[in-house]
Write a structure and sequence with these properties.
The chain is of the alpha/beta class. Helix content is 40%, strand content 12%. The chain has two domains: 160 residues, Alpha-Beta Complex (Aspartate Aminotransferase, domain 1); 252 residues, 3-Layer(aba) Sandwich (Aspartate Aminotransferase, domain 2). The strands form three sheets. Strands 2-8-7-6-5-3-4 form a seven-stranded mixed beta sheet. Strand 3, helix 6 and strand 4 form a beta-alpha-beta unit. Helix 4 crosses helix 11, helix 5 crosses helix 10 and helix 12 packs parallel to helix 14. The structure holds pyridoxal-5'-phosphate (PLP).
């Protein structure tokens, strides 16, 4: 292909895959494990999808499709922030279930997935070359979501090296932020946004309300925007379960950042949510932003047109989220299922002595396979990743792109396969690692 026909931006995109594991993901997707027809097939443990709960969602959406008629507004243009009736329904859902505090429909907006929310929020909150500080390790795709269109730079905040240093504690503290600020000032850079993910991707750690409040106060004082991405809010692990309770030294209660936002009522505080993870709907592309900053919400409305969620999807989601009994049962069941699949992976890791960060939430486990590296380099990490895949069919996410300095760390998604398949994947991984 002659890339000279593209813009410089286009040329750069053409040769930079969005994720390091994308090609292998497509390859593995064509060769999936099936006990009867493809026992040597692949196990996709690298993409954070929640297949445990998709049956519940499909049943409900089918019922809506069969039993309700589509309103006229679905075929027309609507408010770029989201259709007003659907925003009302989602604001009520957030108020009752997610945030447990009042949420006004005018303080929320929808885009086509959390990725689109991240992109447009970055565009609105910071200028090209300004810096988003993100605790390491963190979701690799943030780099592109904040960088490709808005040109923001990612600064990976190093809070620890060995995973045992932090355990399941949320690692960002005020002294660490002060240090990052000093470092950035020395480099002539502007610390513009602090981005926290809670529960976190990939460590599964969770920030308590006190910690969020402290960070928010620091951000307001330093005129830094703070965003908390709560996309895994309902995918919490039952840490009181007998098999895993020993992993958690202290109790951390989930509390949505919306509570801190309500109390501090600052233009610097914002929250992201999405339905791709907890609600098993990554394909429907539904992301949510909540902000009490009126200018931000105005800019969002004016800039969101290319990112809008289709009205048909908005309508279906609106109908689904009116079903309160369903939501209550779903949230309970999701927690049970996520805990069961989490334990399946932990059982293997404990058995073979692989260190991991005890997760409080999310759909994965962050593990340290560094003792199996042939060389302590990026190449050594990639070689181990490929070797695991070629020998077992198990496709993990390697640490590359998570911004962490230690090599040999991998993310294992536990919610993307039926538990019976996950068991086989873990048996194969165990056999492979023990033979090294
Ligand atoms: C922390 C985090 N934010 C955003 C996303 C993207 O979500 P969506 O599929 O809704 O764009 C992901 C997906 O893995 C994620 O882990």
């Amino acid at each position: 292909m002659n890339n000279n026909s593209l813009s410089l931006r286009g040329e750069e995109l053409a040769s930079n895959p969005a994720r390091v594991d994308m090609e292998l993901f497509f390859e593995a997707s064509q060769n999936l494990y099936c006990p009867e027809t493809n026992p040597d097939g692949a196990f996709l443990l690298n993409v954070a999808e929640n297949h445990l709960m998709s049956g519940y969602i499909k049943k409900e959406l089918t019922d809506i499709t069969l039993n309700s008629s589509i309103p006229d507004w679905v075929l027309n243009y609507t408010d770029p922030s989201g259709h007003p009736e659907v925003r009302e329904t989602i604001a009520l859902f957030m108020e009752k279930h997610l945030c447990k505090c009042p949420i006004h429909p005018d303080t929320i907006g929808f885009s086509a997935g959390a990725a689109a929310i991240i992109e447009i929020s970055s565009f609105i909150l910071a200028d090209k070359g300004e810096v988003v500080v993100i605790p390491s390790p963190s979701y690799p795709v943030y780099t592109g979501d904040i960088g490709i269109k808005s040109g923001l730079e990612r600064y990976d905040l190093q809070t620890h090296f060995h995973i045992e240093e932090t355990g399941s504690a949320a690692p960002v503290t005020i002294p660490i932020l002060e240090k990052a600020k000093t470092d950035l000032v020395a480099k002539g850079k502007q610390f513009k946004i602090l981005l926290i993910t809670s529960p976190d991707n990939p460590t599964g750690c969770m920030y308590g309300e006190g910690q969020l409040r402290e960070l928010a106060n620091w951000c307001i004082k330093n005129e830094v925007h703070m965003v908390v991405n709560e996309i895994y809010a309902f995918s919490q692990i039952d840490t009181s379960d007998d098999l895993i309770s020993i992993d958690y030294k202290e109790d951390v209660k989930y509390s949505s950042f919306a509570n801190v936002m309500k109390d501090l009522h600052s233009d610097y505080l914002h929250l992201w949510y999405g339905l791709s993870k907890d609600f098993a709907m990554s394909g429907l592309r539904f992301g949510i932003v909540h902000s009490l900053n009126q200018d931000f919400m105005n800019a969002f409305r004016n800039g969101n047109i290319p990112h809008m969620v289709s009205n048909h999807t908005q309508w279906m989601i609106g109908e689904l989220f009116k079903r309160n009994d369903f939501l209550e049962d779903y949230i309970q069941e999701n927690k049970k299922q996520v805990t069961t699949s989490y334990k399946e992976v932990v059982k293997t890791l404990k058995k073979i002595g692989v260190p991991y960060v005890p997760a409080r939430g999310s759909l994965f486990i962050w593990t340290d396979l560094s003792k199996y590296l042939k060389e302590d380099t990026d190449q050594g990490q990639e070689d181990l990743w490929i070797s695991i895949y070629k020998n077992t069919g198990v496709l993990l996410t390697p640490g590359a792109g998570f911004g962490h300095q230690k090599k040999g760390l991998f993310r294992i998604v536990h919610s993307a396969l039926p538990t019976s398949h996950l068991k086989v994947a873990m048996e194969k991984l165990e056999r492979y690692l023990l033979a090294q």
